[in-house]
Each structure stands twice: as structure tokens, then as C-alpha cells.
Amino acid sequence: MRMHSIWALAAIAALALVSAVHAEDEHRQLGAHVHGHGTLSIAVEDKRVAMELEVPGMDLVGFEHVAETKEQKVAIENAKAKLAKPLALFKLPASAICSVSQVKVALEGGDDHDDGDEDHAEHANAKYDEDERGGHTEFHVAYTLDCAKPANLTSIAFDYFKAFSGANELTVNVVTAKAQNTYEVSRDKPALDLGGMM
Amino acid sequence: MIVPRLALQSLLNRALTASLTVLAIAFSVMLLLGVEKVRTGARQSFADTISGTDLIVGARNGGIQLLLYSVFRIGNATNNITWKSLEDIAKHPDVAWVVPLSLGDSHHGFRVLGTTPDYFKHYKYRHGRPITFAQGEPFDDLFDAVIGADVAQALEYKAGDPIIVAHGTGSISFVEHEDKPFRVSGILEKTGTPIDRTVHVSLKAIEAIHVDWKQGIPMLGETVSAEDVRAMSLKPTAVTAALIGLKSKIATFRLQRMINEYPEEPLSAIIPGLTLQELWQLVGTAETALSVVSAMVVATALLGMVTMILTTLNERRREMAILRSVGARPATILGLLATEAGLLTLAGVILGAILLYAALAVLQPYVDRAYGLHLSINPPTYREWITLGAIVLAGFLAGLIPAARAYRQSLADGMMVRT
Fold first, then answer.
1. Can you tell me whether residue B132 is helix, strand or coil?
2. Residue B85 burial (CB < 10 Å; 0-12/13-18/19+)?
3. Model confidence over B296-313: pLDDT tens digits?
4. Residue B261 and residue B243 share a domain
């Protein structure tokens, strides 16, 4: 019985393979880039929480070319300022007692390698020019948080959608010592229940 | 309080039909809840196929396909990955262990997996449960094989038996590696995962059986004996995929990105739990279909109850009329019949739940053993309580149909003698 269900599953999966494209970028190859859709990856171990946000420029600033006008430059700076405060975008339970220990904001595919105070060491290989990114800029943000009581990290409220009117969906990947899971949150359902993951 | 008591008495008066109706509702509720349990059980067992592995690495293709061939042994890899790339990954400071997987041969339709003894140490299922041996031990010799529980059962093997591995993955193969027979060194306990249907050999053994093979067929006159093979260096040059464990979960996404961007070879790394979830979403439609079917069964049972009450209504014309004549208002009659229906449904729901838990308690070990499906015995979830409440409410509302009919019948109608 189990065998049959697995074969049926395989047939369905084969059909769906086309859509299962990896959203990663590589040498002269472009990752998936879907406007309105970003990815938030969260890894938790002990009291350390690592989060990575990858989201198209369209979602956060409304354009995906190199900022030309003054307004566009201001828009990028505003977006970066908002991204630098993860706890305001991704509201964690107060009882988890989390604090931000590191934030790295990068804009890939744009003219974003000028802020001296931000550490771009990890993105050294990400200095694509606009053509290489297919003309689409992408925000790439890495956060490191420290939570005194990570067991209380049972939910996330996504004020992110309130902060960025162009963002519609976010795939949330969560890896903890206990489990690995993936969720979808959206403008209509901006909350995530992580019960059982911690 | 007279109405519920009256309703109960009236039901007791028709104990046989009433109890049959209750039974019909009970079975339908049992089915509805049971489907829910099987659904969550299947989902859980599926998600529990692999645990403790942080990343699976394979040639670059869709994550689901990589998961299917590396974990479920379904389909084949489009490309192998080179041993050198794997060594590079193993050297990464965040990597705790690497277990290579080499697929492509079969034994009577069961896949043969070439791997290292670490596989038995690191492969975990169902929340970190390790693989255990029912008989024997991990492979030690070049021509040792460890077989899964289903393989042992289907082919009636026991530890120490010789087996011959066939080239390719069909169940009937015309080219067999018969010059190099294997010995069953161990048999694994049933896990309910694809491991049960796998023959495990060492990576070197996979190399060894292909030493004198060129272009998929053995070269005539160039056979290398099993003894000579032992003397050869059997370092693999390529494997199909690899399981990777990390020192810290924090590094998971970082290493995944690194492997996906590995410049020397197009590789992809997946996080098994995430991809399992994606895969499950594909079969989600079937889940919905199951739920719809069992909801229909409940609707049918409720319809049967309404029919039962409606048919007895004719016999009860006089009863209703007497009630009316002693001062019961039409509204009381309405309430009486609706309450009867509500009580029937409530009894059915309670009985159904009891039956389900009794069945679960009895069948759970068997289902786990036979199908590897772990059905958890939990109190009803919030959603199930809502469903049960909705069924009782629906039964009560359905009871309003015959009730409305009785309501409309006049006092005189019931008093008249019909011929």
C-alpha cells in the first residue's frame, strides 16, 4: 500500500519538477526572481538565531534598477533603515527576550557597495553588475539575534508587510535542532505559528 | 426540561431504529475522524522518513527529484557528483559528517545502495530514531550486504545467505554481477521508511562489481575474479548523492548557499525537511479529496437519520396529537423532534469517537508494523472538536425538517382516524 502511494507521489512529483527551481544565484545563471515574493530563512541553535532575508527590490522600493533620481536613492536608504531593525519587521514573542547582535544589509545588482559601515565580506562574490543579475536588484539581509529564551519563539508576526507595501508573500524556512519546515506567509495571513518547532 | 426527557423517552421507545441510526452516525463519525488521523499519521510518517540530516547534496536539479532518488529511491539521478567535490564539502569547517550514497544497481527489484558504515550511525528517522539491526551487523567485508526488513521478508533471507546483485534497476535483469556474489551480513529492523526496501553495500563494493564492466555489459575474457578485485584500489570517483550533517544548525542556510554556488561543479543542496514539506504540498489535493469523501459519508448518515424520523412521524401522529391535546404548543413539538435528532447525533458522535479510539488502541501497533504508519493517539484537536460540534449542530438542524412537518400538522389531523 505504501509502495503504491509512493509511486503515485512520484508521478505527481515528476510533473511538478519543472516548478521546483532553486532560488539561488550562481555563475552566469540566474535564480528565480518573483516580484512580490521573498524568502526568509531562520536557523535556531541554542540561544543563537540566524535569519536571512532575500527579497526582490520591487517588493521593498518599487524599482529594480540602479537608483538614479534623488527619490530613488532616498527610497533605498529608507528601505535599508527599515531592514536594519528586524524586530520591528518580524515581531517575535517578547517572552523570548531577543536582541539583535548583527545586521548585514546588501543590495545585489544595484550600486550598493558604498556604505563603509556595513560588512560585505560574505557577499564578496555577489558583486554582480546589473546585467549579470538580469537587470533585477535584490535585497539580501543577514541578521544574527540572541534570544535568552528561545523556547518561547513560538510565533512570528510579520509587520514586514505593513512596512513594505510592495511585498505580498514570503516563504519562511525554519531549521531548529528539533525540526525543519517551510511555511508561506502573505499580506493576508501575516502570522506564523512555530509551535512544535522549538 | 420536559422536552429533552420526553425526547429521550420517545427514543427509548423506538430503541432498535434509534440505535441503528446512532450506529450509522457513529460509523460515519469514526470514518471522518479516522481519515483525519490517518492523514496526519501519513503526513507525519512521511516527514519522519529522514531526520538528523541537515543537507542532501546531489547534482543540480529540482530539490524534489533529489529527495526522491536519494531518500525514497524513486527515479534516477540525472548526473552523479564527483568524489572530489564531496571531499571539498567534507573539508568545510561547518561539516560534521558526510555519508555518500551510490545508486544504480538492484537485487530482485530492490535498490542497492552503496554507502559507508557511517550511514547506519547517522541516518535517523522518526525524530532521531536510529536504524537498528534485527540480525547481524554492518558490512565489514567488501562483499557484505545489509538488507532492509522488507527485502529480508520478501526474499526470505537470513544473515549469512549469499545474494547476487543485478546491474540496472529493473526487477528482471539479464545481466547479473554473478561472478561477485555478496553475503548478507545484517538485516535491519523495520523502519517504515524506504530503507526497508534497500540492499546496502559498501561504496567499494559498488566499484568492485563494475571493475570489469565496460558500457553496461561485462567484457568477455576480461573478467576480474573476486579475489583479484580485493587487491585493487577501489576508490570511488563519483557518487549519486550525499547526506551531510553540520556541527551547527546556524550554518545550514550558509552551507546550502555555498554548495549551490559551488563553482567547480553544478551541485544542489536541499534541506530534507523543507523539501519533504514541498513534496507533501503536492499530494495535498488527495488529502482534501479524502476529507471530502468522509464529510459526504457523515452527510449521508444524517440524511438517514432525517429519513428515519420522517418515516416514524406517520406512526406518531397520535402521539403528537395527544401531546397537543394536553397543552403542548406546536413549538414544543418542533423542539421535541429537533431535540430527538440532536440527541441521536450526539450519541452517534460520542459512540463514534469511542469506537475510533478503541480501534486505534487495538490497530496502532499492527499498522505501524505492517505499513510503517504511526497513528498517534491524541485527544481530539481543536479542529476536530469544532468538526464534532458542527456535526451535532447539523443533526439538530436536520431534525428541524421532520419537526417542521409535525409543526404544521394540526391537532385535528392527529386525532382523526385514518382508514
1. coil
2. buried
3. 988 888 888 888 888 887
4. yes
Task: Report angle CA A125, A129, A133 to the nearest 5 degrees.
Answer: 85
Beta-carbon contacts of residue B390 (< 8 Å; ≥ 6 apart): none
- Using DSSP's 3-state secondary structure scheme, residue A188 falls into coil
Interchain pair A173, B274: CB under 8 A: yes
More confident residue, B320 or B224: B320
The continuous run of DSSP H or E covering B144 comes out as strand B144-147
Q: Are residues B216 and B76 in the same domain?
A: yes
Query: Is residue B104 very low, low, confident or very high in pLDDT (cuts 50, 70, 90)?
Result: confident
B150 and B38 both lie in a single domain: no
The rounded distance, in Å, linking the Cα atoms of B81 and B77 is: 10
C-alpha cell of A110?
A: 544595484
> Over 80: is that where the pLDDT of B180 sits?
no
Residue in A closest to B260 by C-alpha: A24
Domain boundary (B245, B270, B295) is at B270
B259 and B116 housed in the same domain: yes
The nearest alpha carbon in chain B to A126 belongs to B261
* Count of CB atoms situated within 10 Å of the CB of A24: 18
Mutate to test the interface with A, among B74, B150, B383 (most CBs of A within 10 A): B74
The answer on B369 and B224 residing in a single domain is: no
**Residue A106 touches partner B, C-beta closer than 8 Å:** no
Chain centroid to Cα B123, Å, comes to 19
Residues A29, A9: Cα–Cα separation, whole Å: 30
Nearest to B145 by CA among B128, B163, B122, B123: B163
Q: Is 0.80 surpassed by the pTM of this model?
A: no
Beta strands in A5-110, from DSSP E residues, in sequence order: 37-45, 48-56, 90-91, 98-108
